[in-house]
Every structure is written in structure tokens, then in C-alpha cells.
UniProtKB/TrEMBL annotation:
Annotated InterPro entries: Nudix_hydrolase, NUDIX_hydrolase-like_dom_sf, NUDIX_hydrolase_CS, NUDIX_hydrolase_dom
Cofactors (names): Mg(2+)
UniProt keyword Hydrolase present: yes
Family annotation (CDD domains): NUDIX_Hydrolase
GO molecular function, one term: hydrolase activity
Name the UniProt record assigns to this protein: NUDIX hydrolase
Family named by the database record: Belongs to the Nudix hydrolase family.
Organism: Deinococcus proteolyticus (strain ATCC 35074 / DSM 20540 / JCM 6276 / NBRC 101906 / NCIMB 13154 / VKM Ac-1939 / CCM 2703 / MRP)
Keywords associated with the record: Hydrolase
Nudix hydrolase domain segment(s): 1-147
Lineage, highest ranks first: Bacteria, Thermotogati, Deinococcota, Deinococci, Deinococcales
Length: 164
């Protein structure tokens, strides 16, 4: 099994509380699915710097680092078999996802690196075609304030546990 992944995801919210979603395009994982801006932390990179970089690269927004807040972390251990929008199946992955929230931003979102569309989505009405774990991650970390969660499984069969 490969070494654990460190990921960052940022819930950029507008004045109405909607979250910014980006549809992945040309990505190795979850191609064609809606997700928060984010991705892998580069070796030696600070988590906050990684979140800011991913948002800038994927949707073109400049975020104020002082306005970036932590929503918590989720460990994940997904089994082989997670499929993307084209039905291609991936291999087992494990690691930790660090969730952030940003409200202040500069610029207007636009699709850039590994994205082909962006949209503001109401938390109660996320679009079809989201990454399977996204609705539950937003519910637990953004709406309910969970600080530490654990995910096990793959696709629609992910089981969540709130640890704190």
C-alpha cells in the first residue's frame, strides 16, 4: 500500500452561506465529480499554505490567510473500488483530510487547473455528481462542528464516525 496521503479541502462560502464547488476535470481521482477546491499537500508544505495554493490553482481566488479557519480533520481508509464519474475504479487509499473554511476572498471563481466548471451550492441542495463523501463531510465538519472524524469504506458505502 502507498504511504498515507495528506489532503486539504477548503469550504469557500459566500455571503449567503453557499459553498464553492469545482468539477474535477483531467484529475487522476474523481474526474468529473463536484468537490471543494483542494488536493494533496506537497512535501514540506504547510497545511494552510497548501489550502491557499489549491484554491488559487483550481478556482483562481486569493484568500486572506488570516481569514482561513480550521473545520477539523478526517482520517480515511478507503477500500479499492471507488469509481469516478466515468466508472473507472481506483485503488485503496488512506490518509488524512484537513478541512478549512474561508469567507473573505479576492476575485471571482473560475475553472482553472484540473477543473472545468465552478458553482455556488446551497448546503441543503448539493448538485448530483458530487464526490460521495462530500455531503457528509460538510454536514459533520461545517454544520455540526465535528473536529475529528474517521471514514472507512468506499463510494456510497463510506461509514463515518465522529471522534470529537
Amino acid at each position: 500500500m502507498p504511504p498515507p496521503l495528506l489532503l486539504v479541502w477548503t469550504a469557500v462560502q459566500d455571503a449567503q452561506g453557499r459553498v464553492l464547488l469545482a468539477r474535477r476535470c483531467g484529475a487522476r481521482v474523481a474526474d468529473g465529480l463536484w468537490n471543494l477546491p483542494g488536493g494533496a499537500v506537497e512535501p514540506g508544505e504547510d497545511l494552510r499554505a497548501a489550502a491557499l495554493r489549491e484554491v488559487r490553482e483550481e478556482v483562481g481566488l486569493e484568500l486572506d490567510p488570516a481569514q482561513l479557519s480550521s473545520l477539523g480533520v478526517s482520517s480515511f481508509d478507503s477500500f479499492a473500488g471507488t469509481a469516478n464519474a466515468a466508472g473507472e475504479v481506483g485503488s485503496a487509499v488512506r490518509g488524512a483530510a484537513f478541512f478549512f473554511r474561508a469567507r473573505a476572498r479576492q476575485g471571482e471563481p473560475r475553472p482553472l487547473d484540473k477543473t472545468d466548471a465552478v458553482q455556488w451550492a446551497d448546503l441543503a441542495q448539493l448538485p448530483s455528481g458530487c464526490l460521495p463523501w462530500l455531503p457528509e463531510a460538510l454536514r459533520l465538519h461545517l454544520l455540526q462542528g465535528a473536529r475529528l472524524t474517521q471514514q472507512r469504506g468506499a463510494g456510497q458505502a463510506v461509514q463515518w464516525t465522529v471522534l470529537f
